[in-house]
Amino acid sequence: MIKKVMAFITIGAFIVAASAFYGQEAVAKEVTLYKNPQCGCCESYADYLRENGFAVTVEPTHDLVPMSKKAGISEDFQGCHLAFIDDFVVSGHVPIDTVKKLLSERPNIKGVTLPGMPTGSPGMGGPKTGPFTIYQIGDDQPTIYTTE
Ligand SMILES: [Cu+2]
């Protein structure tokens, strides 16, 4: 009897775990990425997100700077494109581990940004010359979210 109950619990737990797993895998997270029409590294970053399982829609725009500002990112901290994922904004060539950290920890911020276009960051070519500093965007001055 106890063995039977244990078996049911084990199967039940397996089904719950499996459906949670497949539920996550089946639905690719939607991303809208705004970029200047001529930006090539932004396209590469969109592909990088796609390779990591996101469904990316690229929207060319000439209003990237004001749009980024409206999203809470002052000019000094803006990346070369602006992506909206869930309720967060991700600006610039932010590595996927940081995007995942943001989406799983869900801190009370507007989003994150990697200013400039550091070589070696995802979507940019060349060697990585040092750690990337990713800033968090909130109501106040940006502060460091993480480095990687
Ligand atoms: Cu870029």
What do you see in this structure?
- The protein is built from four helices and seven strands, in the order αβαβαββαβββ.
- It is α/β, with parallel strands linked by helices and 148 residues long.
- The chain has a single domain, classed as 3-Layer(aba) Sandwich (Glutaredoxin).
- The protein has a seven-stranded mixed beta sheet, with helices on both faces.
- Strand 1 (29-35), helix 2 (40-51) and strand 2 (54-60) form a beta-alpha-beta unit.
- The protein is globular and about 65 Å long.
- The mean pLDDT is 89.
- Bound molecules: copper (II) ion.
- The site of copper (II) ion (CU) has 5 residues, from helix 2.
**Helix/strand class:** alpha/beta
Strands, count: 7
Largest sheet, in brief, is:
7 strands, mixed
Number of helices: 4
Shape: globular
What are its keywords?
single chain, 148 residues, alpha/beta, Glutaredoxin, 7-stranded mixed beta sheet, 4 helices, 7 strands, globular, binds copper (II) ion
Summary, kept brief:
Helices cover 36% and strands 26% of the residues.
Task: Present the secondary structure layout.
Blueprint: H1 2-26, E1 29-35, H2 40-51, E2 54-60, H3 64-70, E3 81-85, E4 88-92, H4 96-105, E5 111-114, E6 133-137, E7 143-147
Parallel strand pairs: 1-2, 4-5
Antiparallel strand pairs: 1-3, 3-4, 5-6, 6-7
The structure holds copper (II) ion.
